[in-house]
Amino acid sequence: MLVTPDKITKLSDNQIFVFGSNESGRHGKGAAKTAMKWGAKYGQAEGLQGRTYAIPTVNSSISHHLKVEKIEFYVDRFIEFARNSPNLHFLVTEIGCGLAGMNHKQIAPLFKEAMGLTNVSLPKKFIRIIQGDL
Description:
The protein is of the alpha/beta class. Helices cover 25% and strands 20% of the residues.
């Protein structure tokens, strides 16, 4: 399994920065703000944007995180997109575990299906949880 670097400061040509967003697409803080330098579009809540991919984890008013089932819907769409984009390499950050206030054990299992993809890197903590090490 490929591991996402702890801190991403640059991207190779085929790499895509995967970050947690809010449903209104206001990328003002955290990884979402970082994503702006690689083409994230203000106002676009989900999907491929420049050299980034947004997965909503917070509601549109940015007042609380989404229910896990709703985040799972967005993660499943991401995984399907990654499956259909073998020429791109996705660096998944610890979405939902920063400003959204969720814990790794809530989010990591949502990425279980991504473990078999050779073009997706996951955070070390997500991998350990999925494998049952944490």
